[in-house]
Amino acid sequence: MSNDKKIVLSGIRATGNLHLGNYYGALSKFVRMQDDFDCRFFIADLHALTTHPDPKALHENVKHILAEYLAAGLDPEKNILYVQSDVPEISEMYLLMNMHAGIGELMRTASFKDKARKALGISAGPAAGEEEIEKEIIGNQSGKSVNAGLLTYPTLMAVDILIHKADFVPVGKDQEQHLELTRRFGRRFNSFYGTEYFHDPVNFNFGGQPVKVPGLDGSGKMGKSEGNCIYLIDDEKTLRKKVMRAVTDAGPTEPGSTPTEPIANLFTLMELVSEPSTVDFFKKAYADCSIRYGDMKKQLAEDILKVTLPIRERVLEIREDDDYLSRVVRRGAEQARDIAADTLRDVREIMGIRKF
């Protein structure tokens, strides 16, 4: 890796298969970046532990996401590809950084409040919910609980970034608060110990507007927990069925109508995978009220398959090659550990944890 290249870091939680949103929102862009940046991409299995996954499923998820990274075009000769738990220095620095993270600021993060509400069965609005969460956590009598790993999730994310001294961290809008906390923790560390050791990582701007890949349920974005995904591993029959079941409406009743959200979502997907002439054809059909949603969905499914089927074939091939996968993660772990060990040694020294 060239030292004069800017460092890019990103990770994906090991919680299931990657979907079209992951591909267009991140993975395809990572492939384009790998020649111009010093890229480190990891599989976040420690982060996944906050939801207490089945151990066998966790291991399979790690293996599968690694195969999807490789199948999508990430080259282990150009990038550092590693599994988070293969770098124990991360866990130690996570402990040290927690000494400078406040309980209050962690409890106020949007992701913690949302996930804590779900875990505790709280359905109240944001203002009331915050007080109820604190009451449930501090004096819980219901048998329900929120684990400390969920609370300190932003600290672990900060360590993932700071231990590499990353310059750029591509994150979506829902992760921007965590990136700001990373900068805050780094600055606090610097201020407390009178050093300029950590610098501020920033979100990576790929140019243009960020890609928001909509789901098939008529609203929101594509996401694993929403159950509205097209997975890169979906077979042809499954994918066609999902697309044909996508939410639509009764159709335009007046020429020049503005598409409703479900139809706008289908056009957004089509703009990602189809030829411009195809998109124009269906937009004109919508505008003059002659559009047939069934035909549009069939074309959309065909165009998505052109993207996903080659990736699916490579994923299935790579997953069967355990020796290759092992070589990739062993090499990645060695590279990541060398970097992490240097940072951890410096952090221990700065904090006064020194050998006699």
Q: Report the order of strands and helices.
A: EHEHHEHHHHHHHHHHHH
Helix content: 55-70%
**How would you describe the shape?**
globular
Q: What fraction of the residues are assigned to beta strands by DSSP? A: 5-15%
Provide the CATH top-level class of the largest domain: Alpha Beta
**What is the count of DSSP helices, taking H or I runs of 4+ residues?**
15
What is the annotated CATH architecture of the largest domain?
A: 3-Layer(aba) Sandwich
CATH homologous superfamily identity of the largest domain: HUPs
Structural summary, described in words:
This protein has 356 residues and is mainly alpha-helical. The chain has two domains: 7-101 and 152-211 and 322-351, Rossmann fold; 236-317, Tyrosyl-Transfer RNA Synthetase (Orthogonal Bundle), CATH 1.10.240.10. It has helices at 20-33, 45-48, 55-72, 88-98, 103-107, 110-120, 126-138, 148-151, 153-162, 176-193, 236-244, 261-273, 276-287, 293-319, 322-351; strands at residues 7-13, 38-44, 80-83. The chain has a three-stranded parallel beta sheet. Strand 1, helix 1 and strand 2 form a beta-alpha-beta unit. The longest helix has 30 residues, at 322-351. The protein is globular. The two termini are 35 Å apart. The model has no long low-confidence stretch (mean pLDDT 90).
